[in-house]
Design a protein that fits this description.
- This protein has one domain: 3-Layer(aba) Sandwich (UDP-N-acetylmuramoyl-L-alanine:D-glutamate ligase).
- Helices cover about 40% and strands about 25% of the residues.
- It contains 13 helices and 13 strands.
- The strands form two sheets. The protein has a nine-stranded mixed sheet, sandwiched between helices.
- The longest helix is centred in the C-terminal third of the chain and has 18 residues.
- The chain is globular, with a radius of gyration of 18 Å.
- The structure holds adenosine monophosphate.
- The site of adenosine monophosphate has 17 residues, from strand 2 and helix 9.
């Protein structure tokens, strides 16, 4: 059964301290879909403008990502312009133009409404809610959010949280949403708001999962060169949900492995600008880094403990 993702497809202008990419393919649903597709079928719901390039459409369809839910609208495609600090965990949004997303109201196809797995990528909580209202009986619903919506659409966001299973957000957003400075308190407070699982993304420090089973933490895979952290969060979510859909249920065992696969895919995406690295990625590389990842944190690995 497919995973349905609703989020942005857009053109990003990204500045780091040393490089710049202008109007590169990006958007929350883009990264999610390109990661989730390694694990199973993905169906993408988004809007683009008349300036959306046909070769970018092909990047998705060539990888079997279902674009029946991609609506072409009169106007411009979503644009985002961000600049990273020297500390790449920090970035400023210099410009955000919702364009055709401003009054987009997605209408799911009948088979999308019946999907078991839904990811509400970073879009307004109003839009996320409108999509949730169209779902028949999903098994697992995950959502992402960001500081912009926590500040500007808080009431709607809080209502939405009661209806989802998993929330992904970064550490700063977890503090902002919960009002707690301490991340453990913040994670626990978020679980009380509705979701049974909270995945707090901490950039180069990794991910902290909160659930009824307690906490689970993984580091980010240490890399010598990080070129562009954009999309790491959505890529993480894509692989996480992909693995959960493959596992079929949200047990702690499935969740933990999903967190590691999410971290593996995210570690690849940041190696090059925009979606370049994830487009050329192969399953062997994913499995290779998965094993390297386990070894990185396993103090009892047989390689070192057997005589
Ligand atoms: P991430 O680095 O995982 O937070 O995701 C970055 C992607 O999110 C970029 O490709 C942007 O196009 C997209 N993005 C940035 N701001 C927003 C927003 N307010 N709503 C939806 N998508 C956004």
């Amino acid at each position: 059964m497919s995973i349905v993702v609703v989020g942005t497809i857009g053109y990003d202008t990204i500045e780091t301290q040393t490089d710049k990419a202008v109007e590169a393919l990006g958007g929350s649903a883009t990264y999610f879909a390109l990661a989730a597709r390694f694990f199973g079928p993905v169906s993408l719901v988004a809007a683009v403008g008349t300036d959306f390039k046909p070769e970018h459409r092909e990047l998705f369809t060539e990888r079997n990502i279902d674009l029946r839910g991609l609506e072409y609208r009169e106007g411009l495609t979503f644009r985002w312009h961000g600049r990273y600090h020297e500390d790449m965990n920090r970035r400023d949004t210099l410009n955000l133009a919702l364009n055709v997303f401003a009054d987009f109201s997605p209408k799911l196809l009948p088979d999308q409404s019946r999907a078991d797995y839904l990811f509400l990528a970073n879009i307004s909580p109003e839009l996320q809610t409108a999509v949730l209202d169209q779902m028949a009986n999903p098994k697992v619903v995950a959502a992402d959010t960001m500081n912009h919506w926590i500040e500007n659409s808080r009431a709607q966001l809080i209502k939405m949280l009661r209806r989802i299973d998993i929330l992904t957000l970064n550490d700063e957003e977890a503090r902002m949403l919960s009002g707690e400075q301490n991340l453990v308190k913040a994670g626990r407070a978020i679980l009380k708001m509705g979701p049974k699982t909270a995945l707090v993304k901490r950039g180069e420090y990794g991910v902290l999962q909160f659930s009824e089973e307690g906490m689970f933490a993984v580091p980010a895979y240490p890399l010598e060169d990080v070129h562009d952290p954009t999309g790491a969060g959505d890529t993480f979510a894509g692989a996480f949900m992909g693995y959960v859909a493959r596992g079929g249920k949200l047990s702690e065992r499935v969740r933990r492995t999903a967190v590691v696969y999410g971290s593996v895919l995210a570690s690849y995406v940041v190696e090059r600008f925009s979606v370049q690295r994830i487009l050329e990625l192969g399953w062997d590389e994913i499995e290779g880094r998965y094993r390297a990842f386990l070894e990185l944190t396993d103090s009892h690995h047989p390689r070192w403990t057997s005589p």
